[in-house]
Specification:
This protein is an all-alpha fold. The protein has 10 helices and 2 strands, in the order ααααααααααββ. Helix 3 packs antiparallel against helix 4, helix 4 packs across helix 6 and helix 8 runs parallel beside helix 10.
């Protein structure tokens, strides 16, 4: 009896894994992903899961790539790269205080790191987020701002400051539009970052001093001009760099 009980987990665990793989493939098949590609994606997801990487974002990327008619070989290559990036992102997010991060947070961190952010930037945003729900859009906004040409340290400081000043997620998501509007008015990327940090505009058209704006430099993020990033925020698309 003890021997049978000892062998039971060896039977149950593989069965659970097999069921998960079936569900994963079924999700891909339901969205029109062909069986051969689904098998490759499932294999990548299984390997990534063993490293603590959530499988959901990989399925989402595969479905998106297929819907955009990206060649299968390119989808597979992009997913392998994204899985590796998410493995690094998981560590950065956990270091920011989320021991069991949701897949969307890990994916957002991986996208941001693909755009040039470092692990310290990710940690700063995750630590500042009031909850896990806000962490993902915060990271996405930092990535969007750097894709528009803002220095990474400015983008992180803007988002961290907004979170510490209790701005809503909708305020955060409006920041890239604000930056784009200022760029269209002829303002350089570095001036846009400083303008927002100084609290001269909060994304809702409100004016005010530094206490009412987004400006706050996060601890652990170095001061300086930083560097601009190409907007390579997604395996299948590329965003513009908006430096004047």
């Amino acid at each position: 009896m003890r021997l049978l009980l000892g062998l039971l987990p060896l039977v149950i665990v593989p069965a659970q894994l097999a069921a998960q793989q079936v569900d994963f493939r079924a999700r891909l098949a339901a969205r029109g992903v062909p069986a051969d590609l689904a098998d490759q994606v499932a294999a990548i997801a299984a390997s990534a899961s063993a490293r603590g990487v959530p499988e959901g974002p990989l399925a989402d990327k595969a479905i998106e790539g297929w819907a955009k008619r990206v060649p299968e070989a390119r989808i597979v290559a992009a997913l392998r790269t994204f899985a590796d990036r998410m493995a690094v992102a998981v560590d950065a997010v956990r270091a920011g205080g989320l021991e069991s991060p949701p897949g969307q947070v890990v994916a957002a961190a991986a996208e941001a790191m693909g755009g040039g952010l470092g692990a310290s930037d990710v940690r700063a945003v995750v630590r500042a987020a009031p909850n896990a729900t806000a962490a993902a859009p915060g990271l996405s906004v930092v990535a969007a701002l750097t894709a528009q040409g803002l220095a990474s340290n400015q983008a992180v400081a803007i988002v961290v400051g907004a979170m510490h000043n209790h701005h809503s997620v909708s305020d955060l998501l409006n920041l890239p539009s604000l930056a784009r509007s200022l760029h269209d008015q002829g303002m350089s990327a570095s001036d846009i970052g400083q303008h927002i940090l100084d609290g001269d505009g909060d994304g809702d058209g409100h004016q005010g001093g530094r206490s009412g704006g987004f400006g706050e430099h996060p601890s652990g993020v170095p001061q300086g001009t930083g560097h601009d990033h190409e907007g390579n925020l997604h395996p299948f698309t590329r965003g513009p760099v908006r430096e004047s």
